[in-house]
Structure formats: structure tokens, C-alpha cells
Write a structure and sequence with these properties.
With 186 residues, this protein is mostly helical. It has a single domain (24-99, 114-176), classed as Up-down Bundle (Hypothetical Protein Ta1238, Chain: A), CATH 1.20.1200. Helix content is 57%, strand content 5%. The strands form 2 sheets. It has a two-stranded antiparallel sheet. Strands 3-4 form a two-stranded antiparallel ribbon. Helix 1 packs antiparallel against helix 4 (118-141) and helix 3 runs parallel beside helix 5 (148-171). The longest helix is centred in the C-terminal third of the chain and has 24 residues, at 118-141. The protein is elongated and about 55 Å long.
């Protein structure tokens, strides 16, 4: 018999972690790794719209790391399970990529508004979803054990996505739109 994607075990609003523990689908742990999955999907769009081969390679690596984070978050923290891990080198890679891209970008002197090209916009959407994932993982870490490197990685990743959005705009000749706050009383 062929493998079926549906199990019907979640029909009553619960799901299982790796290790067997069942949780309501509304649990913050489920929300956290679900948001990491959402982020990974948006990064697929960013990669699809990216024209630079090296950026596509880096994004593919980030997507792999997000699966690692998802498997870590989807595992019962009370059981000793062999799950892939995020390493400090993964964070260092993001920092090096940001430094490389920053070297070719104009100095940032203003807040910028997302947009200008679908690739730039998807990058900003991914950045926002990344920030949400980070907030959820931080909240989870206040209740249960979460490896600190996961929070650090998500924090750095949102910075990377901001710089990548600027790099994509710059390489495509898209003008950054600076935020001009309205004067008080107008």
C-alpha cells in the first residue's frame, strides 16, 4: 500500500511531537515551528525570484537550517532525541554574507519602505515572518527548554533578509523608498 499523507490523528485538534508527546495545535511550540515552516516557504519565493546564483545557494542553505530548527522545535524537549543542530558557524555565515553585501550597498541613512520589486517585497515579508518566528521561539523558551543558538540564528537571519532585500533592490536598479515621517500637526 502506498504511503498516505493524511493520518487523521490530528482531527481533534492535537498533534504529536517527535518523541510521542501530544500537544494541542494551538500550543506555542506548534505555532513556533509552524511559523518557521511559513518562513521557509517565503524563502522559497525569495530564492525563486533571485537572479544571483550565490544568493540562491545561500538561501537554499538557510532553508536547510530552517528545517533543522523546525525538527528541533518539533521534538519533545523532555526526551533525549537525536536531532540535527544549529551551529555557531551557521550564524557566522549569515554575518559574513551581510558584510559582503554591505560592501556594495549605499550607506543606510534612513528607514526604508518595503517594495519596489516583487523579489524585494518577498524578502521583506520573509523578514517579518522571521521576526514573528523569533518572538514565538523566545516566548517558548520562557516556558520550556530551547537551544539559545536557535534564537540567535533567527535574530541574525532577519537582519540578513533586510540586507538581502537591499542588495536585490540595488542589483536590479530599484530605488529605495525612504520613509518620510509626517510632521506633527499635519
Amino acid at each position: 500500500m502506498a504511503f498516505r499523507i493524511y493520518t487523521k490523528t490530528g482531527d481533534e485538534g492535537e498533534t504529536s511531537l517527535f518523541g510521542g508527546r501530544r500537544l494541542p495545535k494551538s500550543h506555542i511550540r506548534i505555532d513556533a515551528y509552524g511559523t518557521v515552516d511559513e518562513l521557509n516557504s517565503y524563502l522559497g519565493l525569495v530564492r525563486d525570484y533571485s537572479e544571483e546564483g550565490s544568493a540562491r545557494t545561500v538561501i537554499k542553505g538557510i532553508q536547510d537550517r530552517l528545517f533543522t530548527i523546525g525538527s528541533n522545535l518539533a521534538s519533545d524537549p523532555d526526551k533525549k532525541l537525536a536531532v540535527p543542530d544549529i551551529k555557531p558557524e551557521d550564524i557566522t555565515l549569515l554575518e559574513k554574507e551581510m558584510d559582503r553585501m554591505d560592501g556594495s550597498l549605499p550607506e543606510l541613512k534612513n528607514f526604508i519602505l518595503p517594495g519596489g520589486h516583487p523579489a524585494v517585497s518577498f524578502c521583506h515579508v520573509a523578514r517579518c515572518v522571521c521576526r514573528r518566528a523569533e518572538r514565538l521561539v523566545v516566548a517558548l523558551a520562557q516556558q520550556e527548554k530551547v537551544e539559545p543558538v536557535i534564537i540567535q540564528y533567527l535574530n541574525r537571519l532577519s537582519d540578513y533578509l533586510f540586507v538581502l532585500a537591499r542588495q536585490i533592490a540595488h542589483s536590479r536598479g530599484v530605488e529605495e523608498v525612504h520613509w518620510a515621517p509626517r510632521k506633527a500637526g499635519r
